[in-house]
Design brief:
Elements lengths: L4 E2 L5 E2 L2 E2 L2 H5 L1 H5 L6 E7 L4 E9 L10 H16 L4 E7 L8 H13 L8 E5 L7 E6 L18 E3 L7 H10 L8 H5 L26 H18 L7 H11 L2 H7 L8 H14 L2 H17 L3 H14 L4 H11 L8 H13 L14
Helix pairs in contact: 3-4, 7-8, 7-9, 7-10, 8-11, 9-14, 10-11, 11-12, 11-13, 12-13
Pfam families: DUF4192
Protein name: DUF4192 domain-containing protein
Amino acid sequence: MTNSLSIPAGGHTEGRQNPDTLLAAVPGLLGFVPERSIVFLAFRDHRVVAATMRHDLELTRGGLPTVGMKQLFDRLGALAASYEVIGTVAVIIDDRFPPDDPRWRKIAAAVNRAFRPAGGLSAAFAMPEAVADARWHTVWRPGPTANPRPPFVRGVLDTGVLSDPNTSATALERAVSSGRRILARRSEMETMLDPEAHCSEPECCAESPVPYHHAPDDADARGLELTLAVVDRFDAGDTDLTCHELNRIAAALVSVHVRDALLGLSLTGLRPAAEDLWRTLTRRLRGPARAAAATLLGHLHYMAGEGAYAGVAFQAAHEADPDYNLANLLDTALLNGMRPRDLGGLAELAFEVSERLGAQLPPAVYEAAG
């Protein structure tokens, strides 16, 4: 999922639309260059992308979608219909067959059937990779007697060469708004969360606290106060953490009450600082505390419409603690295409919990994406 962005469908060439601008925007929308994937762009109107959905493209030996993929297409078609979109574009990025291979058209036709509840596909394109100078082909479009569907106002070109996604307007907008560059592949996101040393102190004594069920208490209030103070320090540029501080934060995060209160930072002006801290803690902590930090990070990305980053964070949480319930619930919601704004109740709960613990979060300045 991504935030809503305005993307022109493309200029006109030889009386038809050139979708290059749209296709070059895909890596910028996702935050990374997809490989062996199918990407869906759901349009709210002729220019605004309401949602972007990417999935690994699983094929049979004959190059057709697996049963699981067809079931996924059905779920996504129903999801697109719930978004009340006026058009959906499918983009296949896969090097297993040439971009003009007839198998891509068969896959696109299957997607079109699945997306009938949302009005069907507006068009489908295939290219071996989403990099500059890659050759793309239009592999599916409405029948010759059908009117063009949004975002297109006329027929599209049969083929073309992709412009540089790194210099697309979408990539530049993302860089300005989030400070993120387009990653070469999704695995780079995983590397950003690779574990590292707990601290640099020679006599490091890392602790891995175990969560336990309890009513909110004074220890929770102190843990929340400490963690919010560290977020403020990160916001001021002070990112040094002692071994003792890391252990105290770990003890705070394994409390569901503290964790739930901290979810609210995803919509406040402290979101960038919180993101930096959650990422640091995900790399330095272990066990349930790492799972809690990764879940906070994933939730923050989810609310910002950065689904790929959120998915990687939830994966890190699962690896740290396979039974960490909130991470598993949020990851399932993400995979099923639940819109961030539909999870707004978590943020409201966070502000209530923080007040019960005697702390006050900054006011919300962001809205959940989607």
